[in-house]
Structures are given as C-alpha cells and as structure tokens.
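Record pair follows.
FIRST:
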Amino acid sequence: MRSVENNKLRNITARMYRENAEVASGSTADAIRHEIRTGELLSPSGHIQKGVEMRSALSKLIDSGRLSQSDQNIARWMRRDIQDALSEERIHTQTMRNGY
C-alpha cells in the first residue's frame, strides 16, 4: 500500500499487512479467515481481537475527515475486508453452536 498518503493510515496498513506472509495476502483479514477455517492460530492469541481493533481504528480515521479521497477508498476497502472476515467468524461460531 505504497500509495497511502496519511501517516495514521500508513501505520494501520503496516500493522494489518505482513510482508512475506505464509498465508494468503498477509493481511489480518486473511489470517482471521485461515484461523476460522483451520482452527490453527497464527499467533498465540489469534487475530480476531486485532481485527476488531483495526476495524475500529479505520472507522475513526474515516470519520475524522482527514483522509484524501484516495486514502478514504483504501481505508473503506480495508475496513470492509476486516468486517467480512469477522462476519465469517460470527457465522462459523453460530453454526458450531447449532451443531452443523
């Protein structure tokens, strides 16, 4: 995400994407998806809490009005990706509770 202009968004991006990752794109969202699908945690505590925190940070930054249009588009895409992964976790948890 070299095209990110805003420093806060750049820092969030650096926290959410890991270079040379072994799972998919290296994003926190992909780590969440992997952990849900396989049951294998990629860090001692997993990535769901980090996903919740990153979604909140992105929402605050988007709502701040301090992002260029380009950065807003990037931040919204990242937030949507995290939200989709967290929704998978919620669906998976409900399915497991219902015995499916």
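SECOND:
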Amino acid sequence: MFRLKILLMIFCLAFSVQAAFAEKQARYLLGAMPLPSNQFPNSYGSYSKGCLAGGQAMLESGPTWQVMRLSRGRNWGHPNMISFLERLSKAVAKETSWNGIYIGDISQPRGGPMISGHVSHQLGLDVDIWMLPAKNLNLTKSERESISSIDVRAKNKKNYKLQLD
C-alpha cells in the first residue's frame, strides 16, 4: 500500500510539472504567431486558459479610436468584439466630450497565454479600454507606447450609460 501511495505521488508531481511546462511553452509558441489561424472565428476554453481561432485585427486607428501599445501585437479579437469596439467608440464620441476611445490589449492573433502581462485576454473576448479622454486620435506610434491611462469617473460619481446602435 505504501508503494502505491509513493507511485501515485510521483505520478501527480510529474503531471503537474508537465502541465506547467506545457503552459510555459504555449505562451512562447502562441506569442510568436504573427497572424491568426485560417479558421471560422471561435473562442475555445476560458478567459485564462483558452485560444482564439479566426481572430480579426482591430485597425490601429479609426475615426473614433486608436489602439495603444502597438508593439505588443495584442490588437486581435473575435470579430464580435472588434465590431462591438467600433460601435462603442462611436457611441463614446457621440455621447461624451471625448473624441472616441483608446484601446489597450485585446488578444494575440491566436489568443492563448501571453509572454508577459495578462492571464486573461486569451479568447479575444475581453479588452482594456483606457479611461484617458481621447482628445487626440492622431497619436504617433511612439506616443502610444509612452502615455498611460488614468482613473476617471463621471462628476456625479455614477457610471456612464451609453446607448449602442
């Protein structure tokens, strides 16, 4: 019986080491992929253990948004997320004093764990929207790497309610 317990402990230890090694390898494998897979768009897994098939790039700049930290290559998402962000940025520009939004990380081209930073953002379904008023939507690539977001709230201390078309 003692031998069985020892063998079971060794098996469990080996399995956990292998799982940790696999996750580390997936981080570097997926982080090196410059393009999405050529598949029907779908998200697999969970926000912290998943991947993205058929991801779509959020354009670096649009009429009411700019993607920040372009060097990270994290401007990829599920097409539904990209469409949502385009609609959201228009609503923000229409209903607030901002010209639009600054968009932080969405996901890598194929999702999955990232080399640094987020544990989530693996499915292309979550996004960092900077709470920095987007007054200038003509930032250079260098400016997008160097400025940071700030914390803001409405004057009445309540959340903004935006109507999306």
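COMMENT: Residues 2-146 form a domain with the Muramoyl-pentapeptide Carboxypeptidase; domain 2 fold (CATH 3.30.1380.10).
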